[in-house]
Amino acid sequence: MTRSRRYGLLKGVVGDRPGVEEQSVAVRPVIEEMQAEGVLIFTNGGLDRSTVVCGVEPVDGRPVFTDGPYVETKEHLGGFVVVDVPDDAAARYWAGRLATVLDWPQEVHRFRGPGQARRNGSGEK
After folding, report:
1. Cβ(9)–Cβ(80) under 8 Å?
2. Rg value, the chain, Cα
3. Which is it for the CA torsion 76, 122, 116, 82, positive or negative?
4. CA pair distance 73, 81, nearest whole angstrom
5. In degrees to the nearest 10, what's the CA dihedral of 90, 93, 97, 98?
6. Taking Cα atoms as reference points, which of 42, 41, 48 lies closest to residue 16?
């Protein structure tokens, strides 16, 4: 039995990047291929200022909610995909497919499952 792992493939965005509609059309075949291969868990692309519900930050140990995004940077999460694949190489493959079709860098993050120890910076437990 091959054990699978879940990975987050994250697309960072700087500013309000034009062409989101075109990217949505271009990425569709890759998402459909992920579905056909049975690796797609969840996807949500096209995150931008229009999709923000609120911001929340801790103040004196209590959450304080504010309208809209108040992040001071131009960089933000532009979208993400969660895949369930056998290993890092497979996660890298799908991130590469997304980066190529979207013409935008991706980050690959391995999700720890229940009971998995945090790894240090070298990747060792």
Report:
1. yes
2. 17
3. positive
4. 23
5. 60
6. 48
Distance CA 65, CA 108 (A): 30
Task: Write down the H helix ranges in the chain.
Answer: 20-37, 88-102
Token pair 């969660």: residue: 82
Residue in the structure block whose two tokens are 């797609």: 40
pLDDT in tens, 17-67: 566 677 778 888 998 999 999 998 888 766 666 666 777 888 999 988 887
User: What's phi and psi for 44, nearest 5 deg?
Assistant: -150, 100
Q: Evaluate whether 49 touches 69 at the Cβ level (below 8 Å).
A: yes
**Whole-structure pTM value:** 0.67
For 84-122, letters b (16+ CB in 10 Å) and e give: bbeeeebbeebbebbeeebebebebeeeeeeeeeeeeee
